[in-house]
Predict the structure.
Amino acid sequence: MNRFIIVVLALFNVAHAQELTLWYNKPAERWEESLPLGNGLLGMMPNGKVLDENIVLNEISMWSGSAEDPNNYEAYKSVGQIQQLLFEGKNDEAEKLVNQNFVCSGAGSGYGRGAKVPYGCYQNFGFLNFHHFIEGDVTNYHRELDLKTATAKTLVTANGISFTREYFTSFHDNVGVIRLTASKQQSISFTLGFYREENVSDYKIDNDCITIQGRLPNGKDGYGLKFASQIRVVSKGGERKNHDNQLIVRNADEVLIFISSSTDYYGHDPLAYVQQKIKANSNGKYGTLYKRHQKKYSEVFNRVQLHLADQKSKSNVPTDERIAAFYENANQDNGMAALYYQFGRYLSIASTAPEHENALSPNLQGLWAHQINTPWNGDYHLNINAQMNHWGVEVSNLSEYHIPFIKLIKRLSKEGTKTAKAYYNAPGWVSYMMTNVWGYTAPGEQASWGASTSSGWLCNHLWEHYLFTEDESYLKDIYPVLKGAAEFYQATLVKDPETGWLVTSPSVSPENAFKLPNGKVTAVVMGPTIDNQIVRELYEALIKANQILGLNDSFIDTIKHDLKSLPPAVVVSSSGRVMEWLKDYPEVEPRHRHVSHLYGLYPANFISPISTPEWADAAKKTLDVRGDEGTGWSRAWKILFWARLHDGDHALEILRQLLRPAFDTNGKAGAGTYPNLFCAHPPFQIDGNFGGSAGIGEMLVQSHDGYIHLLPALPSAWKDGSVKGLKARGNITVDITWKNGVVTDYNISGKKGKQVELLVNGRRENRVI
């Protein structure tokens, strides 16, 4: 009987593991089909080709460019004139003046040529190229990415010999590891070389090692970050030799390949660093290296377990086919939704390393890039994208993965004091819609997309991290950052002559435009709704922080007074929708990808079906007009909107659209999801993955409305299931089990004695932990 139970449990564990595996029955033909591995510092993406295999290598600090001061210190002299034009309704003339005087100095972001200007861009590290000597017809091809172990595999059978390739980026040792084995001895033969398109100054092969050094351009004198990599091949049996910049292995029984890459962004000599890493790890046993990697990774990944019951598991279907089937009918594969959710968590864990002092947060590419000039410089867009990268970390029990982004915000708060002086001669700090690893805070080159401030939105992350952790020492540390952002807004808000409200000026509703009565199209305004919501949210957070810390800060009285003059968080138009601007301007693009005026629905908490039902109705009407489609990340945001509106079926419908296969029959990419589950803007942007995963978490638990709401937006298709390890505000861990859409059991844990209010199956409950 005991043996029977053990066998059943083993079979259950295998089935569950399959649910957390991406797998394919053919090699990747495009980069967007290869499988992402990462430990927050190093990235590898093997394409699994049988003969000519390519592995894309990445390192998160691989940035060109350098520190600069792009602020226009004459800009503040024109702000009064710009504001007067806006008072007079001459927005088009105001926009011309903004473009002349109120943008960055120098080249700015230099989109498409980031490597040639100081702004820089995130870059691919290089390519590890194999030619495997395998003869005969291939059968039983299989490649996979196991999210439970952060390990990829490629399995190939030819001439009766089974070849196995295993790949991981060690979370414990910060080296990439590849193991090649075969079912028959003396069967492993290949050539191996490294390639990078530019900026490699030194390439050496010494016995069993390839060593690479180079230097990226800084956009000034050429002397930017130094980078280095070392690749060591350790073989059992067979012979090894070097020829024409390649390592050649013939007739080996087993081969281990170790990869280390780094830059001097971290303050160390990258060559010495990679040599030390290779020396310390390449003589170790594979089993030991793997166990250390897997232990450290699984301690984090296994915090959350999600099971959505299916009538029939689709885990035996290749992932590319499964994506297509989910798009056709999302109700037939609940396991795909669970896989997508956990893939988002995996990407968070894999694309930043919070335990490292100088860790970088995931950029537009996460850490995975196959180009020198990455799309939009692979930077940090701060008018939703970098924020979306972190929306899921708190609820998904990855709170420490917020820390690198919080450190970036703290750095921007220092650089942003110069920007506040340059553009408004104001106290405090401000940042605009984009930044890089060098601390860029100035506006962009064009008002239509570059004139929206981001500092208030960034403070949402500082505050949310406190709400989830309730760490008062952390709150004390970031209080000056919150206050500095508020000081800037308090000093620069102007009184709208028509309403008397205090509003931002000049600004834009991110990347959207409207039509003036004179027929001209413009973007520059006073007080777009998103700004009004952000300033209100920031002031309220600062007031609460002051109270929690008992600081008796006199500045609080000032913003309490000004709060009375801010516009309402929501103004409903005559059409019943949330207004995007102070005036109900005709929309140029009613289905615009940004839905910035619903910031108050998510990530803020002003709009709620329970506490503000009229505003929730207006939000629904706004979304109906905006439509369900959009770019990849836009669809992800809409999942979160509908989850906050407690409409799980609509949220699932948007998830279905988010997983629309990105490539059509002609190979052209549109919005949706690539075969490797990467989100297609297009091109690839990782924010959609993070936003989509966050949306699933928000469908299962919400805690922003003053209580913990269990299953607030459960789709009817997810009628049975369980989740363990989600987080609610108040540093509370939540486990839920449900049947036929009804919570049958739940558990909350946190600080002993803490009183908690919940909403369970439509009823309010009070619990003491």
Notes: The chain has 18 helices and 32 strands. The first strand starts at residue 21 and ends at 24. The first helix runs from residue 2 to 19. The mean pLDDT is 95.
